[in-house]
Design a protein that fits this description.
The complex is a heterodimer of chains A (about 160) and B (about 130).
Chain A: H1 2-30, E1 36-41, H2 43-50, E2 56-58, E3 63-65, H3 67-72, E4 73-81, H4 84-100, E5 104-111, E6 114-122, E7 126-135, E8 140-150, H5 151-163
Antiparallel strand pairs in A: 1-4, 2-3, 4-8, 5-6, 6-7, 7-8
Chain B: H1 4-8, H2 12-20, H3 30-50, H4 55-82, H5 93-132
Amino acid sequence: MKRIAALTAVLLLVAAYGAAQDSKSIYKKYSDMDEVNAVYISSSMFNLIGKLPSINFSASSDEINIVPLVKSLNSMFVMDCNDERICTDLKKDVDKVIEKHKMELLMEAKKQGETVRVYISGNENTVTVFILTAASRDGFTFISLDGKMNRKELERAIAGAAESL
Amino acid sequence: MKQIEEIESIGYEELERIASDNAVRVPAGLDGKIVRTAKTLEFMTGTLTCDKPSGRKKRRAILIPSAAAAAAAVIAVAFSLSAKAPSDTYDDPAMALAGLEQTFTYISEKLNYGAAIASSAEPVFRKTINVLK
């Protein structure tokens, strides 16, 4: 039983590592283009963020401590493009990653010509990869978070960010 | 009769002369002997190459591909590690935190799309359930 659990954990980590490597490749391919806005935060920077004196999201109801979540993150890639040709290529590359790692579609919403999709990889308690894509006529956005994130902490952080708007 | 050493030491010109000399007779059945010898040699060579590998050969047959695969894996890992990692967008952790918060806010907005659509559909679901009841 322990062996199966260890094997599952190793497989999860390998899958997460693979997806993260693919996100990194996509980032390296597109981030230098003038038509693409890109943000990358490394695990070292997440460690530094975790040491900041106050990194709580101030929600209306209560303060949400995101330190554990931040410390569990390995990397974050954000890319946003407006050029139609580049957007098409970027979307194709992202779709390949999602398909390759058989990521679970968590949510799909269509509103005013924009299609938002959220994919995750992991298990009941842990999210190893979180990918959000937002495609519209005006552009394409790709967000990738990877690490060993506690699912509840991730949900609370996202909900907290919404409340602090 | 000439000895093998003597035959080996004969030059091409001498061999040509002997070959063109009609007085020298080729022994009967020499052709057949040559063909049989060639076939025997061919068979022996083939048998030797088709021989089952010895224990050492077997080990080599397993070890060499394994070593090659291990070397390839090491090279691949070294290459992936040495591949230049992208540089951080922010130098300041506080700025990075602001970027992270902005990203979470964006994610939250987009997730709310889905929640809003689901909420607007809820009365329809309830009405349908009531009708079915």
